[in-house]
Amino acid sequence: MSAPTHLRPLPPGPSSPRARARAATRATTGAGTRLHWWALALPALAFGLLLLLLAGSGEAHAATGEVSGLVQVAEQVLRAVG
Fold first, then answer.
1. Which of 1, 5, 19, 72 is disulfide-compatible with 14, CB 3.0–4.6 A?
2. 66/60 Cα distance (integer angstroms)
């Protein structure tokens, strides 16, 4: 048995030709769009971390027990933040 759906009616559109032209211009220029800060920060952070991982991969210290530069940087960042 299907559930009943209740659709909201659409708001009335602009009635005058001038108002319709303004609405169309606003929609095509993207004046109402905003970019959140994390939309740039997160990809930049991910790129930086991946670059650090690739740059330090030639100096693997798993067998010697030494801490890599990436781990040291991460520890310093965590100390600064926390």
1. 19
2. 9
The CA-based angle 80-76-36, given to 5 degrees, is: 60
Q: What global pTM score does this model have?
A: 0.35
Determine the Cα–Cα distance for residues 33 and 19; give it in Å rounded to an integer.
20
d(CA 30, CA 26): 6
The three-state DSSP-derived secondary structure of the chain is: CCCCCCCCCCCCCCCCHHHHHHHHHHHHHCCCCCCCCHHHHHHHHHHHHHHHHHHCCCCCCCCCCCCCHHHHHHHHHHHHHC
Contact call for residues 71 and 59 (beta carbons, < 8 A): no
